[in-house]
Specification:
About 40% of the residues lie in helices and about 20% in strands. The protein has about 600 residues and is of the alpha/beta class. It has 4 domains: about 160 residues, Alpha-D-Glucose-1,6-Bisphosphate, Chain A, domain 3; about 120 residues, 3-Layer(aba) Sandwich (Alpha-D-Glucose-1,6-Bisphosphate, Chain A, domain 3); about 130 residues, 3-Layer(aba) Sandwich (Alpha-D-Glucose-1,6-Bisphosphate, Chain A, domain 3), CATH 3.40.120; about 140 residues, 2-Layer Sandwich (TATA-Binding Protein). Strands 16, 17, 18, 19, 20, 21, 22, 23 and 24 form a 9-stranded antiparallel beta sheet that branches. Strands 1-5-4-2-3-6 form a 6-stranded mixed beta sheet, with helices on both faces. A 5-stranded mixed beta sheet has the order 8-7-9-10-11, with helices on both faces. Helix 4 packs across helix 6, helix 10 packs across helix 12 and helix 12 crosses helix 17. The radius of gyration is 24 Å and the shape is globular. Keywords: Carbohydrate metabolism, Cytoplasm, Glucose metabolism, Isomerase, Magnesium, Metal-binding, Phosphoprotein. Belongs to the phosphohexose mutase family. This is Phosphoglucomutase-2-like.
């Protein structure tokens, strides 16, 4: 049947049909062969999904470049091989596995468990869908050697993923990603018995940590509250949406543990549904386009605060009813509130820890508001590469040094409050934010009032962030290569907007160049596989252009950081808008490159 295919492609297809035991994906490949669709077969067979943002993420379907049973098995075999090389006592410590409610997640998690069990590694498999943060929580609590969460987070319904946490309970970083990838490629043949999920489920080395971990998680969360009496008596009414994901039942329990009365659910989005039928994108970060049903539910219940989780409940969006209508907070605005509240909680709960031993963390594309608070209050602020894998590994390093880490955040509505979960956690974030709102209400103030007060005290920080969609990797590379050879080889732009805004220095974390250092080398880790260039302008504006690690996007981030003495915030916003518009038009050239803007 495959004889008409070119030899290299024929070998890959025949190998696939030999390995794959899933009737659906086998039929998908056989149909492509019957149609002689060599272009599609090359697309899905000749490449392989590579470890990116702490694991795999991609479209579901047949082929080595897709998420499917065979790829999950091969990945798990490679991971356990690498794990036993690096952590020999993994054979007794075991591994934690969780999954979300997407198509195939249940099966993928159990196929992964099958591979680990065949290698003799005990598996702590959550029996039901769970939030992503429950996996790193369990890795830490159980002393497991690693963790796997089957999820594609907020990606489209066609996608799925395989996120890996190391023994420190943080997401993996180099060199683990390349080490795992190498082990995967060394042993692609499915092991005898690995397809037998029933045998895995009945294996005595398989256990379910759900009840124990849930009890401990909620107990710690409840104990972290400043005053449950304030929570219980607040007149505030919260509306919460799970965005068709796993979060509803977990946030219900979190609210109970924290002493709050029940919240108003967005009923249409309350139950898990892998089709995500009510939203174009199952991502509350998309703002008003994803929150229409939340607005309606809140208005009907006279609720003034909306808390929105993404489908795997590791992120949290916030909206507040103002006189002018609903305000959807940006991730940077939420980060400012959480950072301020983390400091207030510290002053009440941990005053015995000297501020010089206290830390907050943010990624380099996020607001520098934590830095401004740190400078005034006397604690430390650390900046890392983009992603919680970098922030949480930095947190681990600080904890090992005896330091206290209060908070970490990324502008993409990800927040880590405390260190019970060394990852972003939308369940705890929902409760901590509700607690903050309840305490502010006792003073006659709102979350928006407090945000304005933060800016008055520490300086206004205004951002202008968005993205373009681009599926063409070659085009993306050309866009960024042009910036690195702007008019002359190895020369970056020196200004935008006809010379009105001058570039003071450039940091390129793809190549490792940084014009602000003595040796012209970047101090943050270099990631050659991802595009990321930051331009600092003479007016104190910083603009970063980068590609997403999980989606076909070119993102841009910008911020102007004012001092408390700079009170003309409107002028700062107008200046940032003009500068960012110039950067986008002159450097990304969206019209020329046919880039698709962020949907409204």
């Amino acid at each position: 049947m495959t004889t008409a295919l070119p030899d290299d492609l024929r070998c890959k297809v025949e190998e696939w049909l030999q390995f794959d035991k899933n009737p659906s994906t086998r039929a998908e490949v056989e149909d492509m062969v019957a149609a002689n669709d060599t272009e599609k077969l090359r697309e899905v067979m000749m490449g392989r999904l590579l470890f990116g943002t702490a694991g795999l993420r991609g479209r579901m379907g047949a082929g080595y470049d897709r998420m499917n049973d065979l790829v999950i098995i091969q990945t798990s075999q490679g991971l356990v091989k690498y794990l036993l090389q690096m952590i020999p006592d993994a054979i007794s410590r075991g591994i934690v596995i969780g999954h979300d409610s997407r198509h195939n997640s249940h099966r993928f998690a159990r196929l992964a468990a099958s591979a680990f069990l065949l290698a003799g590694v005990p598996v702590h498999l959550y029996s039901k869908i769970c939030p992503t943060p429950f996996v790193p929580f369990a890795v830490k609590e159980l002393g497991a050697a690693a963790g796997v969460m089957v999820t594609a987070s907020h990606n489209p319904k066609e996608d799925n993923g395989y996120k890996v946490f190391w023994s420190n309970s943080a997401q993996i970083i180099p060199p683990h990603d390349s080490g795992i990838q190498s082990c995967i490629e060394q042993d692609l043949t499915p092991w005898p018995g690995v397809w037998d999920v029933d045998a895995a489920i009945s294996n005595p080395k398989l256990s379910d940590p759900l009840t124990d971990m849930s009890d401990k998680y909620y107990s710690r969360l409840g104990a972290s509250m400043l005053d449950k009496t304030v929570n219980a008596n607040t007149p505030l009414q919260f509306t919460v949406t799970a965005m068709h994901g796993v979060g509803h039942r977990y946030v219900v329990e979190a609210f109970k543990a924290a002493g709050f009365k029940p919240f108003v659910p967005v009923v249409e989005q309350m139950e898990p549904d892998p089709e995500f039928p009510t939203v174009r994108f199952p991502n509350p970060e998309e703002g008003k386009s994803a929150l229409d049903l939340s607005f309606a539910a809140a208005d009907a219940a006279a609720s003034t605060i909306i808390l929105a989780n993404d489908p795997d409940a590791d992120r949290l969006a916030l909206a507040l009813k103002l006189d002018s209508g609903w305000k959807v907070f940006t991730g940077n605005e939420e980060g400012a509130l959480f950072g301020w509240w983390a400091w207030q909680r510290y002053l009440k709960q941990q005053p015995q820890v000297a501020p010089q031993d206290v830390y907050m963390i943010a990624s380099t594309v996020s607001s520098k508001i934590l830095g401004a608070i740190a400078r005034k209050e006397g604690f430390n602020f650390e900046e890392t590469l983009t992603g919680f894998k970098w922030m949480c590994n930095k947190a681990c390093d600080l904890i090992d040094q005896g330091k206290t880490v209060l908070f970490a955040f990324e502008e993409a509505i990800g927040f880590m409050n405390g260190i019970e979960v060394l990852d972003k956690d939308g369940v705890s974030a929902a409760v901590v934010l509700a607690e903050m709102a309840a305490h502010l209400q006792t003073q006659g103030r709102t979350l928006h009032d407090q945000l304005i007060e933060i800016y008055k005290t520490y300086g206004y920080h205004v951002s202008n962030n968005s993205y373009f969609i681009c599926q063409d990797q070659e085009k993306i590379d050309k866009i960024f290569d042009r910036m690195r050879n702007f008019g002359a080889p190895k020369t970056y732009p020196t200004s935008v907007c006809g010379g009105k805004y001058n570039v003071s220095n450039v940091r390129d974390l793809t190549t490792g160049y940084d014009s602000s250092t003595a040796d012209k080398k970047a101090t943050l880790p270099v990631t050659p596989s991802a595009q990321m260039i930051t331009f600092c302008f003479s007016n104190s504006c910083v603009v970063t252009l980068r590609t997403s690690g999980t989606e076909p996007k070119i993102k841009y981030y910008s911020e102007m950081c004012a001092t408390p003495q700079q009170t003309d915030w409107v002028a700062l916003e107008e200046e940032l808008t003009e500068l960012v518009t110039a950067v986008v038009e002159e450097l990304l050239q969206p019209t020329l490159n046919n880039l698709i803007p962020k949907p409204e």
